[in-house]
Amino acid sequence: MTNTLSHAPAPAAAVSRMGASAWGRIAICIAIALPAVVFRIGGFAPNALVDLLVFGGAVVAASFLLAWAAEAAQKDIAGALAIAILALIAVLPEYAVDLYYAFRSGYDPAYEQFAAANMTGSNRLLLGFGWPLVVIISLLVARRFVKTGSLPASATRVLELERSSRLDIGFLALLALVAFLIPLMGSIPMWFGFVLLAAFVWYLWRASKVTDDDDDEELVGMAGNIASMPQRARRWTIVALFVVAAAVILSSAEPFADALVDSGSALGIDSYFLVQWLAPLATEAPEFIVAALFALRGMGGAAIGTLIASKVNQWSLLVGSLPIAHVLGGGTTGGLPLDSRQVEEFMLTASQTVLGVAIIIALRFHRWSAIALAALFAVQFFVTDTNGRWVLSIVHIVAALVVFWINRRDILPTITAPFRRPSSPAFRD
Questions:
Q1: Distance between CA atoms of 128 and 292, rounded to whole angstroms?
Q2: Domain range spanning residue 362?
Q3: Is pLDDT of 202 > 80?
């Protein structure tokens, strides 16, 4: 019904109400970001804590603007070019902060640890918190449909992934295996970065060939409000949101990143911890909220699909860009060097990714799997030494091998998905 109404001429009052609602929320985000613009232009820097709040708030607000605009843009743009543009825009907040750390590490060795810290934190947060969150919400929502008889009772225990997710899972599986080379090499060389960037381009090209049954997928929340605007107003709004949000993020990334490091000393908290978890929490929040909204609307498969695609982007585009940014910043080692702590962090992140792939490789996400992922994610906050991180990595790998054995019939179709020609509406075994 919503899709039908969105294409029909709407009463002027309805359009006005939707436009006012959208502009009101946009205005709130701009108001939150405005102090950061004033600080940046005026050169104000009272102290690290104030900078953290001001510039961190601006990054979060701009992230919401980007998330709304990128989702609403699907109504007007299609094709491989749109996929590439939207993918780059959606990850801008996280990448701006992480690439700043990598760039600065080129002339300030003290920052080498922070580039890897931010990446591993955001990667594990996405899988260990984001995936279980979406699954649990989807299964709880499914109870309503089970009571009405429109879904089987199993829908409250297992989330079925969309068939088109096989391509993303296949790429994620390959990237997770390749990721183990990073701790073995003890660095991220430039050549390896270019290989990962090539993998990202390949992924975008393959994804552009996949068609879906429902090309007119309903947009929810703010994206739906923006999409319901008249065409001219909608397009100008989306472009304006992209420009404003990008400008705020690019101008706030450096002071926000520096404030994270400096605030550690002021608060008596390890700066590494703040960079690894607080920054990703701020930049990933809009993505989590959008995915949760999809899950609340009974679109759990689409919700988890977006988070899986984000993992692919992180392991290819983000990791591949780090050594390049480091060298551009003045690094002379031919890539981003990693100390022993970073090696452990990459090992833990890669092993968690392998476990995640094992869980979803059969296109079924069980309730117990979501709980186990969340529990293992929580354990790492109590395991803070070297031995603990290696033990947790081994636990991930052993658990993954057991789950792979259970789902062994799905390994080959998924691993080969990136190399097979997709058919409409999605991959078929």
A1: 15
A2: 2-419
A3: yes
For residues 337 and 109, the answer to whether their CB atoms sit within 8 Å is no
Is residue 427 one of the residues assigned to a domain? no
The answer to whether the beta carbons of residues 276 and 118 sit under 8 Å apart is yes
Say what the pLDDT of residue 78 is: 57
Torsion of CA 340, 342, 348, 353, to 10 degrees: -140
In a domain, 424, yes or no: no
Distance CA 275, CA 254 (A): 13
Question: What's the start-to-end Cα distance of the chain, in Å?
Answer: 33
**Where is 366: in which H helix or E strand?**
strand 364-366
**C-alpha 340: how far from chain center:** 26
- Total domains, the chain: 1
Contact between 397 and 185 (Cβ < 8 Å): no
CATH number at residue 141: 1.20.1420.30
Tokens of 373: 């992922």
Structural domain contains residue 318 = yes
Residue 428 lies in a domain: no
Residue 189: which H helix or E strand, with range? Answer: strand 187-189
For the segment 341-355, what is each residue's pLDDT rounded down to a tens digit? 999 999 999 999 999
302, 393, 304: which is closest to 344 by C-alpha?
393
